[in-house]
Amino acid sequence: MMIKRDWIYAWALLLPAFVFLITFTHLPAIETLLNSFWTTPKGRRASVFTGLGNYEQMLTDPIFIKAMVNSAIYAAITIPASIVLALVMALLVHRSFRGVGLMRMSFFTPTVLPLIAVANIWLFFYAPGFGLIDQIRLFFGLPSANYAGQPDTALYSVAIVAIWKEAGFFMIFFLAALQTVPQTLREAAAIEGCSRWTFFRRITLPLIMPTTLFVSVNAVINAFRLVDHVFVMTKGGPDNASMLLLYYIYETGFRFWDTAYAAALTVVLIAILGVVGIGQFFLADKRVHYK
Description:
Elements: H1 2-35, H2 53-59, H3 62-94, H4 100-112, H5 115-126, H6 132-139, H7 154-178, H8 183-191, H9 196-207, H10 209-225, H11 228-233, H12 245-255, H13 259-284
Helix pairs in contact: 1-13, 3-4, 3-7, 3-10, 4-7, 5-7, 7-10, 10-13, 12-13
């Protein structure tokens, strides 16, 4: 009788979160998948079952192809750069020295700022003529440049903003992981004459691999999820040079009101994240040790 009562009590505790998860996550995902096989209802014209028509449209959609290429380049830049920068910052502030608290705060400050505010700050940096970067260029006699407004540099401009924003957040996890490395290992390595680089490569890096895996998964998700700065800085332009997949989904669904095609694009995005996430776990499984 006691076991049955505990079972009911456990389900009573889980029920609110379970209802929210089903209502706001799983049901919308299923509805999105179903909508991707239909056309968008417009006015008195009801939606029509189109099968894989929306997915076939992607193969001939130049903007979708451009968004996919841009998203791949954007992810290839922001994911490793933010992880490596976060690890370097964590290593810098892991030691005890005067002003370490101020340095940690300065590294973490971009994380607490809204991405919209961060984008506006960097718009000032990128502003041609009077922006911070242009002022430095003009000081050295270099011509003015519009980094966020040129097709060749727009995507890299928004990528730099994302790296600056995300690195401080990932640094916190690396810093916590570094503090779990036993001091006895450092002392033993010092006695054996082990260099700092060898200790980091052979001992520290393997011990923090679980954190690295966690950070890398979050970095992949954020690379496809965060597009607030694109709204403020470039709006996907110029000439779709900074068009990312999630921003294209927004424009398709809410600007052009083609909800069925947007649903199909969303399914593709979820599939990409799922494949990449599962692949990360399988590839890193042999390198991650939790004990």
